[in-house]
Write a structure and sequence with these properties.
alpha/beta; D-Maltodextrin-Binding Protein, domain 2; 2 domains; 14 strands
């Protein structure tokens, strides 16, 4: 009898503890400010770039907007702060930004020694090489002695050195901090090769090359580059919101919930969809946000498939195939834990 009573008390305690999310200092500051400060790149087509009116678009931008929709019910309550590869971590550590969604690779040391938490992977990528066709190169194994344009303070720089060393080749680095200056140097012929994440190479070729057809991306992918949102250690609730805002976009795609049909989906009899969209309450309370948090994300931003398609996929100038970024049900790596 005693065991049954104690089990009941323990279970009640768990319900009480799980039923309410505890606000943290970062989330409190964001709410008091009325705006999310999101660190993005200085301009990578498809990921984060601003037009002449200052309007930001891209797959990274939409993750920031999804977090704002979850917190405020309004995806536009975001200020985008462009950061270079070298500036980005200092900006997050110092509080200049609340959240970093900037084509940043998830690694052990960044997750631990820098005092950060990665909350997911919004784009699975890998490092590649782009060259001018006139170089006559068909493989990265033919790049011995090449000059290579690369950004400092990146996993790209480290992978480059590892790859050439492993293949007993030499190279001459041309190290430039700002991505737009790296591109300009490459297209001006200051280096034979431009190396970065393959997605960035496709974006650069489409958006920046004087004549895109003059450039080829070599077949070798030399690294794993899981790119994702990053927050500071210390505010678990804010980290949870960032994590689950992204997972919500994946879950919505898996269940066929889109920005166009989300209102109709509120009438669904599917218990999972009712939980996801807050028709059956509880998930919002557990996260410490409004019960319509997922509805707001999907209505204002879209599910992951919609976002991918319009920013980097077949509905965009980049026309990158889903590949590893397809849902797990379609042979890809994108997989969200259940919202329940």
């Amino acid at each position: 009898m005693f065991k049954k009573v104690m089990a009941g008390v323990f279970a009640a305690g768990l319900v009480g503890a799980a039923g309410t999310a505890y606000a943290g200092k970062d989330l409190d500051a964001i709410k008091a400010r009325g705006q999310l400060l999101c660190g993005v790149s200085t301009g990578v087509a498809g990921f984060a770039s601003a037009d002449s009116q200052g309007k930001w678009t891209g797959i990274d931008v939409d993750v920031c907007r999804a977090v704002a929709a979850a917190i405020f019910g309004d995806a536009d309550k975001v200020k985008f702060i462009p950061t270079t590869a070298q500036q980005r971590f200092t900006a997050l550590q110092s509080g200049e930004v609340d959240l970093l969604v900037r084509t940043t690779t998830y690694t052990l040391t960044r997750d631990t020694a820098l005092g950060f938490d990665f909350t997911g992977v919004n784009y699975y990528d890998g490092q590649g090489f782009m060259v001018n066709k006139k170089l006559g190169v068909k493989s990265a194994k033919e790049l011995n002695g090449a000059t290579v344009c690369v950004q400092p303070g990146t996993t790209t720089e480290l992978n480059l050195a590892d790859y050439f060393r492993a293949n007993k080749m030499t190279f001459k680095p041309v190290v430039i901090e700002k991505i737009e200056e790296v591109r300009a140097a490459f297209f001006a012929g200051r280096c034979d090769v431009f190396t970065t994440d393959a997605s960035g190479l496709y974006a650069t070729r489409v958006a920046n090359a004087p004549t895109p057809d003059d450039y080829i991306i070599l077949p070798e992918i030399i690294s794993k580059e899981p790119l994702g949102p990053v927050v500071r250690h210390g505010d678990n609730q804010f980290a949870d919101i960032v994590r689950w805002a992204f997972f919500a976009m994946l879950e919505a795609e898996e269940y066929g919930i889109t920005s166009k049909n989300v209102d109709e989906m509120l009438k669904s009899d599917n218990p999972a969809i009712k939980r996801i969209l807050g028709v059956t309450p509880g998930m919002g309370k557990a996260l410490g946000v409004d019960e319509k948090w997922v509805y707001n994300i999907i209505k204002q931003v879209g599910n992951y498939g919609e976002v991918f398609d319009r920013t980097v996929g077949m509905g965009s100038p980049l026309k990158i195939a889903r590949g590893q970024n397809a849902l797990w049900t379609q042979g890809g790596l994108q997989y969200a834990p259940p919202i329940r």
